[in-house]
UniProtKB/TrEMBL annotation, chains A, B:
InterPro entries recorded: ABM_dom, AI-2_Isomerase_LsrG, Dimeric_a/b-barrel
Assigned keywords, A-Z: Monooxygenase, Oxidoreductase
Domain ABM positions: 2-91
Top-level taxon: Bacteria
Keyword Oxidoreductase part of the UniProt annotation: yes
GO MF terms, alphabetically ordered: monooxygenase activity
Extent of the signal sequence: none
SUPFAM superfamilies in the record: Dimeric alpha+beta barrel
UniProt name for this protein: Antibiotic biosynthesis monooxygenase
Organism of derivation: Comamonas avium
Keyword Phosphoprotein: no
């Protein structure tokens, strides 16, 4: 199981512009058969700091996500409004602390 | 609903020392009645970079967590092995992209 945190930093003048792009990206990604969870958050302290928290079965599934039509079309558009480069963190559950069923409970539709 | 990402950076010589402290912190925190989720991950690229992803009903619940006996006892011990200060990010779900039942599906025991 692969957990991902992807952080975007959007110029404050363009937050309203990216919101429909984010919304479509989230909706289409959740329809991918291998997507276990895909949630988008915003930093309390910075309305242009967006944070995706994602769960994928493995790296191959993440790579397939990054190759989808919606990712390839929407992410470059979103990146055009960045104030600084995005940051990506790939993680494993920490051995001995796994939450049983934490990300397999109920499919998020 | 409040989402938290808390990142710890532990000196590589002390990873084995902090693991039982993390394990106790995770176990006891998940028993808190207001804890909706509390997961610990490790960065693929850095075995001393630990990432908590947490869900709380609100800021008051997070503050209660930070005041618990186990937090007050364990976190200062863990921090004694840091290689650099921790980072904390408090977030809201991004309006219009919320995943229904994403963090209310099934209690994680």
């Amino acid at each position: 199981m692969l957990k991902v945190i992807a952080q975007d930093f959007i110029h404050p003048d363009h937050i309203e512009t990216v919101m429909p792009l984010y919304k479509e990206l989230v909706e289409k990604t959740r329809q991918e058969p291998l997507c276990l969870s895909y949630e988008l958050f915003v930093d309390h302290k910075d309305p242009g700091h967006f944070i995706f928290i994602e769960t994928w079965p493995d790296r191959a599934a993440l790579d397939m996500h990054c190759a989808t039509e919606h990712f390839q079309r929407l992410v470059p558009q979103i990146n055009g409004y960045q104030s600084q480069p995005g940051q990506f963190l790939l993680m494993d559950a920490c051995a001995g602390t796994e939450a049983l069923a934490a990300w397999t409970a109920v499919p998020v539709l």
